[in-house]
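Reply to dn_fold:

You asked what the input looked like. This is it:
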Amino acid sequence: MLLRQLEYLVALARERHFARAAAACFVSQPSLSAGIRKLESDLNVPVVQHGARFEGLTPEGERVLHRARRILHERDALHQELSEMRGQLTGTLRLGAIPTAMTVASLLTTPFCEQHQHVTVALESLSSRDIMRRFAEYEIDAALTYLDDDALQGVRKFPLYEERYLLLTPVDGPCATQTEIGWAQAAELPLVLLSRRMRNRRVLDEFFAADGSAASPAVETDTVDALYAHLASGRWSSAISHAWLHMFGIPAGMRVVRLRDPEGARRPSVGLVVAAHERDSAMARALLEVAGGAGVHDALDDLLRAHLES
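and this is what came back:
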């Protein structure tokens, strides 16, 4: 049994298509199919449900797939550890991030790349559920997410910052001249917010409710980019995280106003999470070392202060 055959199996399970899996492995489809058959012969079990097209894995194949991912992960981890011992970490840092934390990812990836110039970074937007699945399948090394998410199990957590909330509103709007407003007052404005299936929106709804109100946005979207695109029209207002200012700033014709924390409300913490099985990973360890000196919390606070004083 060769590692290459395990790579074929992992690619086939991911792509669920023989031709796409072959392309992902940079081999011909007959070569990939032959490798899968050789794997089945070596293990003396059927791994793939054979048919005219890919129909899934057998129960034995699912068990082999889990082990294959782990074996390939250990191979990559070994290469990384050996490169670290030579004084020059190499490989790929696979980093996931929930969409609302993507805006600050560069505060980590930029200093990381400066310190580890022979490592590439693969950054991917993922839901919290996808983050846990990717950890289980050994497909990411670390992730940026809300640390109070109930979906996070079997991970180590490293806080980076607490979200602070602001009203982003047109300069000629009824709240633009105030320095701070309550959530009930913000709820009366024409709003665009993230959709309710996103963790950020559920946090905002808790803050609105804690102030005795409820938001009824005219527009809901599942990306921060689309939210900002609507704000640029000058018609809408929104409750935003201060972390978004790092990437998007304040559109022309808009200004930010503090949203007062309702009594008893807790600001959610955002940080890095690393799976328990990554405890000794050279790549995860290198990222955490960079994160410890990146000053993400202070950088975002300085940015918030500058925008509020402008």
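The chain has a mean pLDDT of 93.
Hope that clears it up.
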